[in-house]
């Protein structure tokens, strides 16, 4: 098995006209740790909902995340939670850690064709995060967990919904993601796939099953990089 490359082969991207980006830990790096705030809010929500101590709530939250793809999907399935209430609470975070990234904005803007954010979070969260990064205006649209009818990636149904809504030709598309399991469907549909990994993988706190994912680079991953900016800038030197 050949290891996925870390820098783009320009000929691999010459035909790409649809640039699909996950949001969290993809458009901003893992070490920003924005998701930790969301994670804490989700734990607090579960603790209050079920009148549990935080440590028990956290275990249940992680169980739902693992078994249902998101904490929300588990809470809806097992407890009939209303998604709006949960999402509002989960994303009540401070975006100050995200600073305007003019270089990233320029690199995204320079890519030929349409750009999308495809997230298991909400449009509101994506707009706030991308807005704080100063890159929001470069995206054509955002597809979120509400548009997905609360069925998270990596469900095939959700990719199909995203792709048909936006009339994306998968043979001319690439997906950027930090979770390897979210790249299997894109690869099977003929998309290029790029995995974002933390800059200090050893120090990063990952869920155990996420780490297990990250350690094997399978045939679903064309490229692995720890810098979206470096990757896109390298592409822009050769594409367009
Ligand atoms: Mg992500």
UniProtKB/TrEMBL annotation:
One Pfam family matching this protein: Hydrolase
InterPro entries in UniProt: HAD-like_sf, HAD-SF_hydro_IA, HAD_sf, Pyr-5-nucltdase
Listed GO MF terms: hydrolase activity
Record carries keyword Hydrolase: yes
Family annotation (CDD domains): HAD_5NT
NCBIfam families referenced in this protein's UniProt entry, alphabetically: HAD-SF-IA-v3, Pyr-5-nucltdase
Keyword terms, alphabetized: Hydrolase
Protein name: Hydrolase of the HAD superfamily
Phylogenetic placement of the source organism: Bacteria, Pseudomonadati, Pseudomonadota, Alphaproteobacteria, Hyphomicrobiales
Species of origin: Rhizobium halophytocola
């Amino acid at each position: 098995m050949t290891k996925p490359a870390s820098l783009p082969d320009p000929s691999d991207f010459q035909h790409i006209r649809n640039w699909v980006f996950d949001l969290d830990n993809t458009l901003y790096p893992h070490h920003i740790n924005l998701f930790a705030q969301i994670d804490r809010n989700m734990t607090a929500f579960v603790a209050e909902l079920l009148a549990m101590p935080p440590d028990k709530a956290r275990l249940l939250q992680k169980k739902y995340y693992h078994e249902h793809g998101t904490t929300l999907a588990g809470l809806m399935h097992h407890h009939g939670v209303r998604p709006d209430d949960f999402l509002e609470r989960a994303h009540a975070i401070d975006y100050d850690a995200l600073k305007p990234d003019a270089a990233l904005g320029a690199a995204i803007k320079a890519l030929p064709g349409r750009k999308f954010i495809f997230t298991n979070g909400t449009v509101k969260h994506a707009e706030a995060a991308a807005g704080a990064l100063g890159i929001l205006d470069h995206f054509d649209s955002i597809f979120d967990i509400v548009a997905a009818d609360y069925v998270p990636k990596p469900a095939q149904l959700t990719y199909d919904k995203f792709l048909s809504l936006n009339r994306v030709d998968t043979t001319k598309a690439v997906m950027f993601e930090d979770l390897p399991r979210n790249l299997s469907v894109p690869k099977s549909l003929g998309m290029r796939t790029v995995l974002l990994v933390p800059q200090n993988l050893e120090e990063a706190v990952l869920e155990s099953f996420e780490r297990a994912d990250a350690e094997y680079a399978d045939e679903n991953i064309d490229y692995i990089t720890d810098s979206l900016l470096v990757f896109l800038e390298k592409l822009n030197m050769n594409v367009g």
